[in-house]
Design brief:
With 246 residues, the protein is α/β, with parallel strands linked by helices. The chain has 2 domains: 122 residues, Rossmann fold; 103 residues, OB fold (Dihydrolipoamide Acetyltransferase, E2P) (Beta Barrel).
């Protein structure tokens, strides 16, 4: 069960968050706040696992509020302004919901947070509290494979490949690590600004892309992954946004 805090200065938007949270069995509403200052007071006395925060709020924006938190739970930003998405992902937000969003959109974001929460729970030692991610945690993934735990630098992951109940990580040095984990759970643990799902079976490190042609993404001269039909528009949008056509 994820304890949630909803923050929005618009009463209708806050009511929608409250109603959506109530529909998802693994979410529990711990409180609602009308602004970020009120949320700071709330968190001074209580802890939560997940925050749904509007970005454009008076006095203190959602981004400023999250940046100032001494201990940062998972965050999903909600806003009517798409230009704020980059700022949200720079703070390692789990997801970003653009208003107006449907329950299906909300449910997908909540599922992503739940998957990340389960991943962190599985990685900790028995009896160890679930703590806030440190800068080292954000730089490395702890991967259980071959009866040992390996720390993998996230930037060294070139792409991830689903193999049923397993995920194979392909690294920059051409080695691979196979771990018992679903691709969707691994996707939730990776920074959304750097990794993209491009196929039902593949996630790529956007910084490792060398080129793309005819439904293929090249990650080296002789290594490529396919682009799934359902993922082509999102990938093309990323390319159009981040690269100039010469």
């Amino acid at each position: 069960m994820l304890r949630c805090l909803a923050i929005d200065d618009e009463p209708l938007a806050l009511r929608q968050l409250r109603n959506y949270i109530a529909k998802i069995p693994y979410l529990e509403l711990a409180g609602c706040c009308n602004n970020a200052l009120e949320a700071q007071e709330f968190l001074a006395a209580r802890s939560v696992d997940l925050i749904f925060a509007d970005i454009n709020m008076p006095d203190l924006s959602g981004v400023e509020f999250v940046r100032a938190l001494p201990q940062r739970p998972m965050v999903i930003f909600t806003t009517a302004y798409s230009e704020y998405a980059v700022e949200g992902f720079r703070l390692d937000a789990v997801d970003y919901l653009l208003k107006p969003f449907s329950f299906a959109d909300f449910s997908r974001s909540a599922a992503k947070a739940n998957s990340l929460h389960e991943l962190l729970l599985n990685q900790r030692e028995p009896g160890e509290p679930l703590s806030e991610a440190t800068p080292r945690d954000q730089e490395y993934l702890s991967i259980k494979a071959d009866y040992k735990v390996s720390l993998v630098r996230i930037s060294e992951i070139v792409y991830l490949e689903s193999e049923g109940e397993y995920v194979r990580l392909h690294l920059a040095d051409r080695t691979t690590i196979t771990t018992l984990f679903r691709l969707k759970n691994m996707e939730a643990a990776l920074p959304a600004a750097s990794f993209m799902r491009v196929h039902r079976s593949y996630i790529v490190n956007l910084q490792r892309i060398k080129g793309f042609v005819k439904g293929r993404i090249f990650l080296s001269d002789d290594e490529y992954v396919p682009i799934g039909e359902n993922y082509r528009d999102a990938f093309q949008e990323y390319i159009d946004t981040h690269y100039r056509n010469l």
